[in-house]
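User: Hey, quick favor. My workstation is busy. Could you predict this chain's structure for me?
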Amino acid sequence: MKIYKTALLLFLYLVFSVSLFAQAKQSDRLENTQKWTLQQCIEYAMSNNLQVAGSVLNERMAKLVLQQSKTSILPSLNGDASVGVSYGRSIDPTSNQFVTKGFVYNSFGLSSQTLLFGWFQRTYQIQQNQLELKAANASFEQLKDDISLNVATGFLRVLLSREQVKINEELVKLDNEQYNQTVKFADAGKLPELNVAQMMAQLATDSSNLVGARADERIAVLQLRALMNFDFDTPFDIQVPDMEGADLSALAALPSADMIYQTAVKNQHRMKFNDLKYESAKKTLDIAKAVQYPQVSLIGSLGTNFSSVTKDILGQTYLGEVPLGNVTVDTLTFPITRPEYTYDTRTRSIPNQYGDNIRANVGLGINIPILNGFTARTNIGKAKIGLMSQQLVIDTDKQKLKQDIYTAFEQARAASQKYNATRRAENAAQRALEFAVKRYAVGMINTYEYTATLNNSYNASSSVLSSKYDLIFKLKVLDYYMGNPLKL
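Assistant: No problem, here it is.
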């Protein structure tokens, strides 16, 4: 028995030493650490969450697409230029004559096209891109709401874990006091050694629970860090709000579940996103129909070119007559000749050729869809199916939203009732423990009865804490659906 008692005391000493050392180290580390409120945690998560960064990129992309669709209504203007060397028999681009020697050429040109009729497709595209930008913004706002709720949940989880640590610390403190008193009674012969062993076992169990509660607290803080995307190596601690003054009777002041649903349908960014996507699907159908209409465009071009075979004559020299043959008229024969000259030439200058070779044209172009493998009809059918699919998404999300709100409302009501019941149970358990402590001190009850009462008190206190924070969370969920700011 003495060996068992010594071993258990050694175990308790180690547990207390490790626990106290960890607690002191953590207290020293957090003493000078900035305390983060719930609002600060939410704001930090908004700025650093990776999903938010991705949503911001999506919104920027939608803005660029909208800007491009707006500028697409402007006339197009394109320039072209070419330079090269030609060999063999080819056509001179300046004179359009066949040449057989090599030459250098280049050309410049501008072309433009303006849509005169058939703006329907582009107009609908601009309207659709405006809707897509609004939808991206709604998706971004919904993501921020979801992050706020998740961070609030993690914040409450940390608060609950710290309350559990406090309860376990008080329980261990009470166990230690009763253990010392039991040892004194056993040494005085008032109680058997069995009572000492039972108290030691109770103290060991509660000490182990304290270590587990502190581990749960550290895990809850790590989970909150992850939700915020906060560096795990940087000191971090939260500001504990005054939860004693929390209004846990707010459920009675809430509107009905149906009114909360009606408010959520109007204010939830997810619902706005769905409505905008439905309007965008309508524009997709309009675009598919607009493809069937003809388009009339004004087209024009301006260009010039240069060729090294284009020459200017600077002078000529008469060389004489070259005989070509004879012609006989009656009995007389006459020789036929032609004059022969040599010419001094040079390549016409680039500026002169550019000025001489300017060409321009203006015209109208019309594009009439006639038969394109029934592509337009197929696209119209696809757009109609997409519109119906989006309507199904809206109906499904509304149905789910209604179910979630009614469920959350009933869960909040049940949590309120459970919280009130656990408070009454805790009061009764506390009174029972007070009596048990007094009776145990004078030896009127044994250790088993005392530890049973002690465990009942601990379980009642834990139940109150769990139901309290569960009720707070349920109320915050209803605030989330109503669009109220999440704060403690």
